[in-house]
Design brief:
Layout lengths: L1 E7 L7 H9 L4 E6 L8 H9 L5 E4 L2 H4 L3 H13 L3 E4 L4 E2 L3 H34 L12 H13 L4 H8 L3 H9 L2
Parallel strand pairs: 1-2, 1-3, 3-4
Antiparallel strand pairs: 4-5
């Protein structure tokens, strides 16, 4: 059975073009979403994926309707494949039920892996460059050494409640105790 999935990003757009194309392709069930493609979890997509059974084919009008990121798209198609569900994109003419469709899927998988590695390399290079310029990563510390010494003094005197110390220093109890326990 062919199972269709249509998605638009905003309510002012129309699903008609996609639904018509999916129906013309022979989809008996069509699931739809009005949501950004960048959202990993979408109600219509989740229901469609759950509905699909082995031997079914999951059909989209275009690849970008299923997911914006190549990696996410490849993961979804791989999930379908492991469940014995085929995948078909009408506009790109990709069908994992054919040899060329499987080839395209493997190429997409390789490209997604390549994209992931490039992002990782750029992130590491950026962090190194920032460190070379003297910039440290991470969030700024909430308690400098002066605040820590003041907190230790107030905490040892036991005349001011821990909550009051936290309010005065503008930190949570967890932050206060974490800094008090440091040497």
């Amino acid at each position: 059975m062919l199972i269709g999935y249509a998605r638009i990003s905003t309510p002012d757009q129309s699903l008609d073009l996609q639904k018509d194309a999916l129906a013309k392709a022979g989809c008996r069930e069509i699931f739809e979403d009005i949501a950004s493609g960048s959202k990993v979890s979408r109600d219509g997509l989740d229901r469609a994926l759950k509905y699909a059974r082995p031997e079914d084919t999951f059909v989209v009008w275009r690849l970008d309707r299923m997911g914006r990121s190549l990696r996410h798209l490849v993961e979804l198609v791989a999930e379908l494949q492991t469940r014995g569900v085929g995948f078909k994109s009408l506009q790109e003419n990709i069908d994992t039920g054919t040899a060329s469709g499987k080839l395209f899927l493997h190429i997409f998988g390789a490209l997604a892996e390549f994209e992931k590695e490039l992002i990782k390399e750029r992130t590491i290079a950026g962090l190194r460059a920032a460190a070379d310029r003297g910039r440290k990563g991470g969030r700024p510390r909430l308690m400098d050494e002066t605040k820590v010494q003041l907190a230790r003094t107030l905490h040892k005197e036991k005349t001011i409640a821990v909550g009051e110390i936290c309010r005065a220093l503008g930190v949570s109890k967890g932050t206060l105790y974490r800094n008090l326990s440091k040497n």
